[in-house]
Specification:
The protein is mostly helical. The chain has one domain. 73% of the residues lie in helices and 5% in strands. It has 6 helices and 2 strands, in the order αβααααβα. It has a two-stranded antiparallel ribbon. Helix 1 crosses helix 2 and helix 5 crosses helix 6. The two termini are 20 Å apart.
Length: 128
């Protein structure tokens, strides 16, 4: 049940990012929520499996940059999730450049943190 809540929160956060950030688009307009759900599934799976490893490996740089490098790690994970979702399911999730992915990463992190706080989810925030 915890994974389904994480997936739902991530899907809402990604939907907000697609709506707000002009550099993040979904090429298939008729099934945009399906594309968001598939992308959020990959992002949730990556956040549960690869993200902890990357956090440990990037810890020295993250400490030196006072936590700002953590957003770079999140941006990198967005690119990985988009690559997997487009490669496996051809969902058409397009990130135009690094700046828009960086902004989307911040928005997804903020929305995920707010939703996790709102529903009272005390587990690690799925802030991508």
């Amino acid at each position: 049940m915890n994974f389904i809540m994480r997936w739902l929160i991530t899907a809402i956060a990604v939907g907000v990012a697609v709506w707000v950030v002009p550099g993040i688009t979904i090429l298939s307009n008729d099934s945009s929520w399906i594309a968001i759900a598939i992308f959020a599934l990959f992002l949730s799976l990556i956040n549960m499996s690869i993200k902890p490893i990357l956090q440990i490996l990037s810890l020295p740089v993250t400490v030196l940059t006072l936590g700002l490098f953590y957003i770079i790690v999140n941006t990198f994970l967005l690119y990985i999730a988009a690559w997997l979702a487009n490669g496996i399911f051809q969902v058409g999730f397009y990130i135009s450049d690094f700046g828009w992915a960086f902004l989307a990463s911040i928005i997804i992190s903020i929305v995920s943190a707010l939703l996790n706080g709102l529903i009272g989810n005390d587990s690690n925030s799925e802030s991508n």
